[in-house]
Every structure is written in C-alpha cells, then in structure tokens.
Design brief:
It is built from six helices and twelve strands. About 60% of the residues lie in helices and about 15% in strands.
C-alpha cells in the first residue's frame, strides 16, 4: 500500500533522529565508540549480538509483511462488503420509493371511491326527498278522494262500501269501483304517474344503495391492499436498517484494518531504521576486526612462502557462480569468488598457501554474513578467507601447510546453496583471487 507524503516525511524525520543518536557513538576516527573492546573475540561477541538482533528484525519484518498482507486482504474484503451493502441500501431506497408511489396510487383510488360513495349517498338523499314529496302529493290526492267518498256517502250511494270490501288497496279501489269512473281521466293519469314515479324512485334508491355497497367493498379491498403495501414497505425499511448497520460495521472494520496496516508499516519503518543503524555499527565492528587482524598480521612472525597458490577445493570443482567485483544481484561489490559445482557440499577445503590460522569462526547466525569461516595469515600482509563452511577442522593459532584440509564446503550464513566463498586479501584489502589462483 502506498504511504502518504506526510507519513513519509514523518518517518524520514524519525529515522534522522535515530540516526543522529546512533552517530553519537561514532568517534572522530569514524569508528564506533563501543569498538573499544580489548580483543577480536569481544568485538565478535558484540557483532554477533548485532547480527542476532538483525536476524530478529528480519524475522519480525517477515511477520509484519505477512500481517500487512493479511490485513490488506481483509481490508479489501471489508471494502467489497461495504460497497455491496451500499448498493443494497440504494436498492432498498429504490424499492421503498416505488412502494411509496404504489401506496400513494392506492390512496388516490381510495379517495376517488370515497368521493363516489359520497356522491351516491347525496343522490340517495335527494331521491329520498323526491319520494317524500311524491308521497305528500299522494296523501293530498287521497284526501281529495276521501272527500269524494264522503260526498257519495252523504248522497246514499252505498256501492262504495262493497267496492271497499273487495279491493286490495286504495289504488285497486280506484280502478275497480264505479266511483273511479266518475273521477276525471286527468286525475287517473296523475295517480298512475305518481305511483310509477314513487316505484321508479325507490328502485333508483336501491340501485344507488347497491352501488354504494359495491364502492364500499372496492374501497375496503383497496385499503387492504394499501395496508399490505405499508407492511411490505415497513419490511423493506427494516431490511434497509439492517443493511445500514452492516455498512457501519464494515466501515469500522475497514478503518480498523487501515489503522492496523498503518501501525504495521510504522513498525516496519522503525525496524528498518534500527536495522540500518545496526548495520552501520556492525560495519564499524567488522572494520575494527579487520584492523585488529591486520595488526595481528603485522605483528605476525609468519613468513610468506613464494610459489603458486593452490586451488582451494578439488580440481574437479571449477564452476564459478559469482566472480569478484560488482555484482548486480547483491547490488554491491563481491569481495571474492564463489565456487559452487554440483556435489560440492561437504567436500574438503584446502589451505591455498601455508600460514597461521588467525580466525576460525564456528558460531554464526543463519542467513547472515560468511557463516562459519576461516582466515589464514600467509605473511607479508597476505591472507585468505574461506566462507560458508559446514565444518572447521582447524583452530586459531594453528600452523597449516599448503594443501592441508582446513574445513568442509557448506551453505552457512548468507548463502543460497552449498559453495565456497574464497577471498585473497593484501593488508585487509580484497583482491581478485584469479590474480593468484588458476582455474583448473
């Protein structure tokens, strides 16, 4: 993950402070102030502590890389889930909007039906008023008819009573009796029209009441459908709330992973800074060790033996994996040659020239430096180094002859496979070994 510019500036500032503090242990001669130990052994102990700490840092950095990768993966998943919940919330927003439209449409239909019912009821009320008026007219005609009957009674016309006894209702009476014949044709038509008007109006009222009942049933149906839509809307809103809660949860998770990644990256930077400072100090120890070795060489009574230098392994092993000089893979200078033929692991290493063993380092930290190595002083400032050994067969101070077996090829220290790292130095300065040994 890319760091922000502000973060980079902060980290660089932190490194500058740490580096400044570490520089406080460097003397004016350029060496670490702690490089005041009395012996190479003391310096090597200090160097071993730094190497071990750097190994711990490398292990922790590897763990941090894994943690960062895992948190970035979890962060990506949280982001994906967050986006999905946002899309789901938008989806529910659309559904709720559609639901509101459907509810509003139902309400509009309900309002229309309610208005129709109100109109029908008003019409029923008007028709009822018409019936009341028609009945009033009918009563007025009956009153007139009563006056006629009374007049007939007064004139002793008794036929009316037999008619009355056989008639089913007052209208039948008017049709059947001879008395009805005496009523004017105009009055008869009026009575018929009045009776028909009352019947028609009553039928219209029944029709209107049926319409009202149907409209009310339709309205109840719409209201039930509207209630169902409201229930569905509430369900959508509940689901939307659940998604919003998830969205908040995933947002918090994303921020937690971001914070964790930032913390891991800060820790990485601090470890890298510490490792760089340790490297500076380790290089100072290494330089002091080399100085002490050179001093030991200068004080050595070892006499240089003229003559050819011997190939340091069996003559059948002659494959060079890395030559002396700049090595792009390492990003720096390679101070020797690496001999790494197939089957070389565990084979004998020979002293290239006679001399005194001034270094036989058995302890080492995996993945760092030369691993197990030997340094032989040959006199006149010449020395050879044999690195990444699997075993050492000599000890410091031991005199060896050219061709003596001094160790076995291995892959200790910083090594990608079994090989012998072979160096030739003059007064501590690395030389191209092919200036002294010949490739078989």
């Amino acid at each position: 993950m890319k760091r922000k510019t502000v973060k980079k500036i902060t980290q660089l500032a932190s490194f500058a402070i740490i580096l400044g503090l570490s520089c406080g242990i460097i003397t004016s001669s350029g060496k670490s102030a702690s490089v005041s130990a009395s012996s190479v052994s003391d310096l090597e102990d200090m160097l071993a502590q730094l190497e071990e700490r750097n190994q711990q840092i490398d292990n922790e950095l590897a763990g941090l890389d894994s943690e960062i990768a895992e948190n970035e993966k979890l962060q990506d998943l949280a982001w994906e889930k967050l986006q999905n919940t946002k899309d789901t919330i938008d989806y529910y927003n659309y559904l709720i909007s559609y639901q509101n439209d459907a509810i509003a449409e139902k309400q509009s239909e309900i309002d229309t039906l309610s208005q129709n019912i109100s109109d029908k009821e008003a019409e029923i009320s008007a028709k009822q008023t018409d019936i009341d008026e028609l009945k009033a007219e009918n009563e007025e005609n009956l009153k007139r008819f009563g006056e006629i009957v009374h007049a007939m009674y007064v004139t002793d016309n008794v036929d009316i009573f037999s008619v009355l006894s056989e008639s089913s209702d007052i209208y039948d009476l008017l049709v059947r009796t001879k008395l009805f014949v005496n009523i004017s044709q105009q009055n008869t038509r009026f009575m018929d029209e009045l009776k028909q008007a009352i019947s028609d109006t009553e039928q219209k009222i029944k029709d209107l009441e049926n319409d009202v009942a149907q409209l009310d049933s339709d309205r109840n149906t719409l209201m039930a459908e509207q209630d169902e839509l409201e229930y569905e809307k509430q369900d959508l809103e509940n689901k939307q709330s659940e998604e919003q809660a998830l969205s908040n949860q995933y947002s918090n998770e994303y921020n937690q992973y971001s914070s964790a990644i930032s913390n891991y990256e800060d820790r990485q930077q601090a470890l890298e800074n510490e490792k760089k400072i340790n490297k500076e100090e380790a290089e100072a120890y290494e330089a002091e060790i080399q100085r002490m070795i050179q001093e030991a060489q200068q004080n050595s009574q070892q006499e240089y033996e003229a003559g050819e230098w011997m190939w340091p392994v069996g003559r059948n092993f002659h494959y060079i994996t890395t030559y002396f000089g700049y090595d792009p893979w390492r990003g720096g200078s390679h101070s020797g040659i690496d001999i790494g033929d197939g089957g070389i692991n565990g084979t004998d290493i020979y002293a290239s020239k006679a001399g005194t063993v001034i270094k036989a380092k058995n302890d080492y930290i995996p993945g760092y430096s030369y691993g197990k190595y030997i340094v032989i002083d040959h006199g006149d400032g010449y020395s050879t180094l044999y690195g990444h050994c699997s075993a050492l067969y000599v000890y410091e101070g031991q005199q060896v002859n050219q061709g003596d077996v001094i160790g076995a090829v291995g892959s200790t220290g910083w090594s990608t496979g079994p090989h012998l790292h072979f160096e030739v130095r003059i007064n501590g300065i690395a030389q191209d070994p092919f200036g002294y040994v010949t490739l078989p």
